[in-house]
Design a protein that fits this description.
It is a multi-pass membrane protein. The chain contains 19 helices and no strands. The protein is an all-alpha fold.
Length: about 550
């Protein structure tokens, strides 16, 4: 038991420190924190409130480009080196963002130029994050192809959503603790600490990833064969087979991101509205924000845990999470007018926190997993890359939707501030709930059932489709199937004999028959009975789990 806990802890730390999700979450969260601190200092910089939304849009534009390109080239290049390229790009642009931010404080003369440079740097930062995101998921799903019940299988559930929320929590927890200890008289010191961590954290992630790549993250022979197999799928047949499924998951994921991204930017506004549109103490402001971020982290952990349960699965977890979120969305819309003007207004923050928790428990923990679980391993790079790029287009739409909502509420204000506050809390949560319900309906009705052994099921379905169109899948099977594990013969006196892999089995049978071994399909040796061949094929395909997810 202690050995299992130790292995799980080691895996958790490796995943935390070698993926860029923590860095992404911290840098995005620190953008709002630094904006608030600079507003208290009355200092102009690239972090002013007016441009914060546009900076988030530039980040998502870079992620769209990075995800689309890496999805195509991860099928041709090693996913390990795509991750390394993405993290290196992220480190470079994140350090440049931190330097521009420090240079822009109280520098009114060149503020416009620095804002343009900062927007370009944010786009480059998003490009690196997009490349790293797709490469990480492809590598984790390739490992799950071989170790369905091992630690790598848990790594597939551990999506970057949890890392992102941990980083976001850290970005608000640091100023909360500093202001709680030193008070609000050390604004410059807290600002410097936040920006310094934002520059150090990417370097730390990059150095840890270099060590991990040089020691542990080596691709197996089966993973290299899978990478070669991906380059052999004709694009026309890929589009023919996955067009409807890819469009469905892309739309569902985009609706989820449209809801989650807009509400993520809206969290500081929630705190301001509950305080009568007056800025509270900074430690209290960051305390409320940290509470909501902590609920996001808890929702991601619970979603990862219940999705791994065989009786739950991604679809059931998605449905339950959306149902809970819908309940709290209705509670917020129905009670905001009463609670906002009563001493019980902090109850709304509890509703907000559980609303965000349910969102991460359902859609936040399962959209990427549904994308991974509905495609074959040989086309996973382009499939996941295109779906993830579409999701970030939804994030851009979410930013614009929140901006239009805020502008509409401000234009409609005729002096009744109470009604304006009520609308400012009702509209975003009502829209977010409707979008999540729509995304859930699309995912549940438009996507196939996700089995526990989804890699094998999807691979066989794609291979049958390719064979029906006259495409030879012999080389595809040979490169994609992992080498079988050693098996013992029926007699206890005879020693164990390793079963040959799909590639050298074909070469051995071809040489015995006098045919070429590379392009010839593997033949059944005359001395091996039919029952043994079936067992070999089952072993080569990996362990099959009979019970499906929901």
């Amino acid at each position: 038991m202690f050995a299992e806990i130790w292995n799980y802890l080691c895996w958790f730390l490796i995943t935390i420190f070698t993926d860029a999700g923590l860095t992404e979450g911290y840098l995005n969260g620190s953008l709002g924190a630094v904006t608030l601190i600079l507003g208290m200092m009355s200092a102009r910089s690239v972090f002013d409130v007016d441009t914060r939304l546009y900076m988030d849009i530039t980040l998502n534009v870079g992620m769209v480009i990075g995800m689309a390109l890496s999805g195509r080239y991860t099928d041709r290049i090693s996913s390990k080196w795509m991750i390394f390229f993405g993290i290196s790009t992220t480190v470079f642009w994140s350090i440049l963002c931190a330097l521009i931010s420090l240079a822009s404080v109280k520098n009114d003369a060149q503020l416009l130029t620095l804002k343009i440079l900062f927007a370009v740097s944010r786009s480059g930062f998003g490009f690196g994050l997009g490349v790293e995101f797709v490469g990480t998921f492809v590598m984790n799903s390739d490992k799950a192809f071989h170790h369905i019940q091992g630690r790598e299988w848990r790594a597939l559930f551990y999506s970057e959503t949890l890392q992102y929320h941990l980083g976001y929590l850290l970005s608000n927890l640091v100023p909360f603790v500093l202001f709680l200890i030193y008070g609000e008289g050390h604004l410059q010191g807290v600002l410097t600490a936040c920006l310094t961590i934002g520059a150090i954290l990417p370097l730390h992630t990059w150095s840890c990833h270099i060590v991990y790549c040089c020691t542990k993250a080596n691709e197996t022979g089966a993973q290299r064969r899978m990478r070669i197999a991906r380059t052999r799928i004709p694009p026309a047949l890929f589009n023919e087979f996955y067009q409807s499924t890819l469009i469905t998951i892309a739309m569902a994921w985009a609706f989820h991101e449209m809801s989650a991204t807009g509400l993520g930017l809206y969290v500081p506004t929630e705190v301001l509205i509950l305080n009568g549109n007056q800025r509270p103490n900074l430690w209290r402001m960051f305390g409320w924000t940290s509470l909501i971020c902590a609920f996001n982290v808890l929702g991601s952990i619970l979603g990862m845990y219940f999705t791994a349960k065989r009786l739950w699965g991604p679809k059931k977890t998605l449905i339950i999470g959306t149902a809970i979120q819908g309940v709290f969305g209705v509670l917020i819309v129905a009670t905001v007018g009463t609670l906002l003007v009563s001493p019980l207004s902090p109850v709304l923050m509890v509703f907000f926190a559980f609303f965000h928790l349910a969102q991460e428990f359902g859609a936040g923990s399962n959209m990427a997993l549904l994308a991974v679980g509905t495609c074959a391993p040989s086309v996973r790079g382009r499939y996941l890359g295109y779906a993830a790029a579409a999701s970030k287009l939804g994030a851009i739409a979410g930013d614009i939707l929140i901006l239009l909502t805020i502008n509409y509420i401000e234009a409609k204000d005729e002096g009744d501030s109470g009604a304006t506050y009520e609308e400012a809390l009702t509209y975003p949560f009502g829209i977010a709930t409707l979008l999540l319900v729509l995304a859930t309906i699309l995912a549940v009705t438009g996507l196939p059932k996700v089995e526990v052994d989804f890699n094998l099921v999807n691979m066989q379905a794609l291979n049958r489709f390719l064979q029906n169109w006259g495409y030879r899948t012999t080389d595809l099977d040979r490169f994609e199937l992992p080498p079988p594990s050693p098996t013992t013969s029926g007699s206890a006196n005879r020693p164990a004999r390793a079963v040959p892999s799909a590639s050298n089995r074909g070469a051995a049978s071809a040489s015995a028959s006098g045919r070429g071994g590379f392009n010839s399909p593997p033949r059944m040796p005359a001395a091996v009975p039919r029952r043994r061949v079936d067992r070999n094929s089952e072993t080569a395909a990996g362990p099959a789990q009979p019970a499906p997810w929901g």
